[in-house]
Amino acid sequence: MRIRWHGHSCFEISTEGTTIVLDPHDGKSLGIKTPSATADLVLISHDHYDHNASRSIDGNFKTYSMKNGRFEFKNIPFYGLSTFHDGEEGRIRGMNTMYRFTIEGMTLCHCGDLGCIPNQKIINAIKEVDFLFVPVGGTYTLEKPELKQFIEMVNPRIIVPMHYRFGGLTIPIAGVDDFLEMIPEDFIEYVGNSVDIMKDELPEIKECWVFDRR
Length: 214
Hints:
The protein is mainly beta and 214 residues long. The protein has helices at 120-126, 144-154, 176-180; strands at 2-5, 11-15, 18-22, 41-44, 62-65, 69-73, 76-84, 95-103, 106-110, 131-135, 158-162, 188-192, 194-196, 207-211. An 8-stranded mixed β-sheet has the order 6-7-8-9-10-11-14-12. Helix 1 (120-126) links the parallel strand 9 (106-110) and strand 10 (131-135). It is globular, with a radius of gyration of 16 Å. The two termini are 20 Å apart.
């Protein structure tokens, strides 16, 4: 499996014969590079301009926006989990869908713009995933105390921070360093723009992988 970051909350996940892109942006509207990816499936967590720009992705792909419940695509099982984009049950920013899926025996959960800690049923559904892609910039998503609590509840093997300020990003959110203050330095890995990983290569200890948008 290959994981590649396209900035903000946009990740490209590739396995043999299938490429999934999550939360594409158009780059230009955010002051960063436009994603360069060809997809078979595009998943959108919520209908905001910095997460729903499927037009910026190449390929004859299928798009699912805020698709909740269990579904399958090319033999890959997915589970869309309905959550809130704010701490007031969606009254401010609406709903958000987290996607949990399994590739090559590894479980991944992309949180989209999670704005509050989900209920226990949802926590149970994503508990101890191998990869947790979580927004860490605050303002529009979980703030630091809730973020820490959420991660502890999920207990993922690998934390992947996203949705934070970097480069020329114009959205007023915090940088990743604020979040990394919560993580012991020995557990932080700077992994570059993409990573190829197999299940038997997963680290034995918990880690935080920080991707670099090049």
